[in-house]
Structures
1.
Amino acid sequence: MGIFGYLIGSWAVLLVAHKALKKPVEGIAKVDPTAETIAHTMYDGVDYTPQNKYVLFGHHWMSIAGTTAIFASITGLIWGWLPSLIWMLVGVHFAGATTDYFAGMYAVKNQGKSMGELASEKIHERTGTLLTVLYFLAGLMVTSMFIEVMADTVVGVPEAGLPILLLIPVAMLFGVTIKKGFPLGPTTAVFVILLLIVVGIGANFPLNLSVNAWMAVFIFYTLGAITIPVWVLLSPRDYLNTVLVIGGLILGASAMLIFRPEVQLPMYTSFFTERGPLWPMIMATITCGAASGVHQLIAFGTTARQLEKEKDGYFVMFGGMQGETFMAVVSAAMIMTFFSYDGFMESAYPDPGGAFSNALANALELYGLDPVWGGTIGALTFGALLLTTLDSWARNGRYLLQELTWNYFGKSRIITSIVFMIIAVIVLFYTPVMDLWSGIALGSITLLTVPLSLLIIDRLESGEVFDRNFKIFVVAPLIVIYPSALAAVIYELYRFVVEQNWLSFVLMVFMAYVIVSMAYYSISKILRLLKERKAEI
């Protein structure tokens, strides 16, 4: 298959699936077009506030995607481009987009409660607490890791620093304009032009700051971003960043479609690779871009609290996850065409972020664009993703800290924001955050089971039958995910022992405990309900 067929075929699958799966997936979630969402019933103008579905789509897509979709799709090419493509297209439609959507709709229909709170009520209190801690750790690790990666990015390409900072006031002005009722279409057109002007001007004034100086900038930025109302900066900035990211990806993808560079990476390499065996490790490697349970942190957090109508949920959350797969496919395609396998193992595999920026610059060179500008556009696209993910995950981490410390200082948004950022800074400077992230990323497989288990329990308690759609999108994925998650954790435990990476080993033991606990209490509850149903019959 050439690169043209790879891209067009993948996009066709995403478009057809989006239309074909809407009715069965919404049926499982029991969407009520007339119901008031928590954005209205719990409105506070800060966290709970109804948002235009297109703006919210941009927020959700950019928040879940970040750079991990790029990292994951590139790293997954170690098994060859065919296994990674199959898992991305199958995983997103039967595990990733569905669980994102189910988790978000669960929160919408249950007073904005997190998956941890709902698991405490419906499965077991211990399981719920463990899950809340795991979700919190995910938000914390993403915040710490992305502050570091963001600083490294702008140090490496100083021309990207000022444009990234200037995006902040532009986004705030856009947020205020939309809040005052100006029409979205014309306003978007005006601000996209302003965005391009700002990027063009800013790129001519490189900021040569140290890594620590940039870290300080992003630490204080994040603290402010997670404290102020969500409509002021978070959602409008994510929406505008969508334009920047889509623009960069479309430029790269169109260059490949027009000039059709040859695919250099093999279709399939080996079942056993440096990353581990194809199963289950491809599921643990390509999480973002296929199926990642940590996305639920965004779905039941900021997204659910801004959903204006239940019927918007499918477009926003299911579609947002498909958007991440679109991004992952394009990222993988650029690497496939600009790196040989030896080159991939030498540079792209150990540094997927740098490889993405270089590959995008190479793609833009096909148009005759100067390599310096190509590199700047690549870094801007990369940086926009980082900044979007950074404050969204930090804000949702703050929500979970409020949940965990409600009886102490959880009611105070400002105090919990400060405490969250202090913990994030400690993790950033005093722990091997990049090593620890591999454990949290692996835990994302486990989290896929949470909304699926809750759906099964709800259906058993209500006495409803398991129809064909429910079996396909809920029961079957759960049966596949549980053993895959446990197998991946066992493999990683072995690897960390061999590498003597004891801190990551301890985190992985916690992951194993969460998986076993979740499985034990969920299956026990399901079996008890099945027994009760049988007795009633």
2.
Amino acid sequence: MDFITGNKFKRSCHYSYDEQGFIKHGEPKDDEILRIFVKIDYVHSFFTQKQERPYILVTHNGDLPVDDNYLQYMSDPNLIKWYGQNIMTTHSKLSSIPIGLGNEIWPHGDEKVFNEVITQNLPKERLIYVNFDVNTNRRERNYCLSEMNKNGLEMGNKLPFKQYLEEVAKSYFVVSPNGNGVDCHKTWESLYLGAIPIVTKSINIDFYRDYPIIIIDDWSDFNPNYFNLELYNKIWGDFNITKLNIKNFIYE
């Protein structure tokens, strides 16, 4: 499995612009459009430099949303398409790409561990799993946890990363509130491990309505009686995690 990560999106582009500077990774082939990766924190700076040829923009590796503040750049005639993480506005040139897993430099981006857990093919034992770091987004996540507690669900214990992934794999549904950004690694960790994430609505998640994800309007709408094995089978259907191979998200 070639997992989705921000750095892989970066390496798929011909140029990148982030804290390491403006770096050339290669030239597009004759039939390719130039692809430029920009860390979202550097987008405003990037657009002070006029691009002289048509290009596709890819933004990732940051928590800032692509919101209305960036619509001013859509008028660039050479901007063909913008693929970004944490999409919070709409435009015909704009499309979402997943946050995916953590980058390989982080413990939660250890792909070897993910592959080990996937190949264990663990039996499912838990209907709904609640386990997240409240400190990542105190307001959203405390609210989510409060609603879970009202419905008889308790926060899981903090676990070593591999053991946490095993618990996800043994669950049918996983509660995935927003993290630092509207997208969350937990959503994609869950899908890779055969669990259906439960999230709240957003412009960004609308791009993934064809995936086995449960979207509710608000955590106050959460009803544990709605969830059962029949629902899991209906929503998961014939979904195959090979659809989450990063090559399926690398641009037109």
3.
Amino acid sequence: MTTAYIALGSNLENPGRQLQRAVNDIGSLPEVELSGCSKLYISEPVGPEGQPDYCNAAVRIETTLKPLALLDAMQGIENDHGRERSVRWGPRTLDLDIILYGDDIIESERLTIPHYQMHVRNFVLCPLLDIAPDLTLPNGKQAKEILQEIGTSGLDVMAEKYPWH
């Protein structure tokens, strides 16, 4: 089994509920075992102006799925939640990003691991540190040190413990 981390985000159609359903969907996938879930955060949107704030979280899973099969599974869940990909960084019902997959470094047309912008996104790092407080990234850097550098401005805790209510 490989440990992987998935970042979750939503800012449409009851975002907290979207993320709760997504966590349940991820946990029910064959070859996937949910082993950790972060607090639920609210963050300012990145991208086009005028969109609602985001709900963000992260999960840790153990899986036998290969990276691209895991990506396909995440995109299937996004599609089941009505995800549309028409506007880059636009509002969305659900966004699931594979942040880390073991210690693998992957750069392909479909998938980049570690996620190419995780080091500048506190709404990814804070939830990630909830479930992996001593996480060292494949490049050798400590996730908590990166978060200290970028800060937590614009990020608030919405719910402490999963399931979020």
4.
Amino acid sequence: MGILDWEFGQLYRNVRGSVDWKQKITDRVMVDICCPKREPYLILGNIAKWQNTFCILGIFYPPKERQMHLF
């Protein structure tokens, strides 16, 4: 499954010349996007020509809100 998110493409362009580019991308994902303070959502879609092939169009990661009490 491919990732078409603009933010990830720009991140790759910023770090592609460095030796540890894979680690920098992993750190960005694990520290800023998939951290316990955030709740990431993947925006999925497909391409009209290949309707059974899905790709990640974007990632939305708002701050995680504390669940309110029921009573």
